Amino acid sequence: AQSVTQPDIHITVSEGASLELRCNYSYGATPYLFWYVQSPGQGLQLLLKYFSGDTLVQGIKGFEAEFKRSQSSFNLRKPSVHWSDAAEYFCAVGAPNDYKLSFGAGTTVTVRA
Amino acid sequence: EAGVAQSPRYKIIEKRQSVAFWCNPISGHATLYWYQQILGQGPKLLIQFQNNGVVDDSQLPKDRFSAERLKGVDSTLKIQPAKLEDSAVYLCASSPPLAGRYEQYFGPGTRLTVT
Q1: Per the count of CB atoms within 10 A, which of B49, B50, B58, B65 is most buried?
Q2: Contact A51/B102, CB-based, under 8 Å?
Q3: Where does B25-112 have alpha helices with state H?
Q4: Averaged in consecutive runs of 10 residues, what is the pLDDT profile of chain A (113 residues)?
Q5: B34, B36, B104: best mutation site toward chain A, by most A Cβ within 10 Å?
Q6: What are the tens digits of pLDDT across the range B51-79?
Q7: B chain contacts of residue A44, beta-carbon cutoff 8 Å
């Protein structure tokens, strides 16, 4: 079965600074990988996904993620953070032909002025 | 396009009481999921429907939880009787057919507090 680890529980970043959130997965073959964002009181919104091909994936809101098979990682990045990026971020893994997702525990991002 | 709708948004009950949550998925979405999200954790899948049939309910505590999806559209999740550890946000998600089935669209959730 697949699983996800998000090593950072909480990250604080200054507005305008860069952000990187770590995600490590466990799966025997090439996984399907996702990043979701959850703002307070809201449901989860899909930021980006990776199925195959180019290992650098662009998403919404200026986010990107890079799949590194050798490191079993799918880290999320944003070059310049805005105050509205304060939220909880979840990495998720799925398998081909299995539409269920396994989520990490999440990373809470705080943006300071 | 309307999103996934859930009600109620908040519910407070005492232990051993029963509670029901409702979900209306995005129109045309054949697959529907219920997740439990305990504070400080990621969502955990409880049950997955494909149209009105259950695909996976291996993580559903069937002694107290039940779910149904009427006519392949709306769904209800019930807890009877509730325990303190059931306090969580219950998220409903749906996904479109065919190639879009990997993309799940989430509702705002129902926050349940069991006292």
Answers
A1: B49
A2: yes
A3: none
A4: 92 97 90 93 90 93 96 97 96 84 96 94
A5: B104
A6: 889 999 999 999 999 999 988 899 999 99
A7: 43, 91, 93, 104, 106
